Amino acid sequence: MIPPRPSAPDAHPYLRAATAGVRHHARALNRAAPPDRGHLDTLHAHLTELHRYIDQLAEVARPPHPVAGRHLATAHTRLWQATTELHCAFHLLPGNTAQADTETSACHPERLPDGPPVLTICQRHLATGHSIRRKTTPTDLRPHTTACVR
């Protein structure tokens, strides 16, 4: 006997919980105070995991459904662009130390960053960057619009 498949709402409970968590933080964000570096570090971690997940979905969808796979690959690239902008914003926010703004606003891959959260976000970003560069070209990474063809 084959066990019944879960219904659509129960099929991905962890994704629903992650979406609810992001929605909660978006509603609770105090508009008077800008986000801090810790907030952006956590959001960057969320986006890089989502990036990895969409990459896996694109790889699975490509053989049986090439058009859907291409759209997922495009979403993968756009998510990388959003992750890059988030990483840049992280470095433009003031740090917790008394360093000069030029020290805290740049990512220096040739030397270790100052420690958490700078260390974690830069390492995560570089690792994800290596992954995306193996699968895309510089032309793919340039922003452009695409129309959904059904």
Q: How many strands in all?
A: 0
The amount of beta strand, in percent, is: under 5%
Question: Can you tell me the residue ranges where pLDDT is under 50 for at least 5 consecutive residues?
Answer: 97-102, 144-150
**What is Rg?**
18 Å
Number of helices: 6
Percent in helix: 55-70%
Oligomer: single chain
Secondary structure class reads: mainly alpha
**Helix and strand pattern:** HHHHHH
Terminal CA distance: 37 Å
Q: Sheet with the most strands?
A: none
Instruction: Quote the average pLDDT.
Output: 77
Short description:
The chain is 63% helix and 0% strand. With 150 residues, it is mainly α.
Characterization of this structure:
By secondary structure, the protein is mainly α. Helix content is 63%, strand content 0%. It is built from 6 helices and no strands. The protein has helices spanning 13-28, 37-61, 66-92, 101-104, 118-135, 138-141. Helix 2 (37-61) runs antiparallel to helix 3 (66-92), helix 2 runs parallel beside helix 5 and helix 3 runs antiparallel to helix 5 (118-135). The longest helix has 27 residues, at 66-92. The protein is globular, with a radius of gyration of 18 Å. It starts with 12 loop residues before the first helix and ends in a 9-residue tail after the last helix.
